[in-house]
Amino acid sequence: MNRQETLKNAASAHRASLRKSLERRLELARAKDDEKLLRQLEAEASYLHIQ
What we know:
This protein is mostly helical. The chain has two helices and no strands. The chain has one domain. Helix 1 (3-31) packs antiparallel against helix 2 (35-47).
């Protein structure tokens, strides 16, 4: 595997990790009925182009 492929795989893994973390945080905010936090997390998802 060359350097370019390694970097691409690392970026992909990083995005997957961000997505998983954000999804978990959204679940917790929904469970707590925390509208303010939900809006912040949704804005973060939009900024990161995750959702």
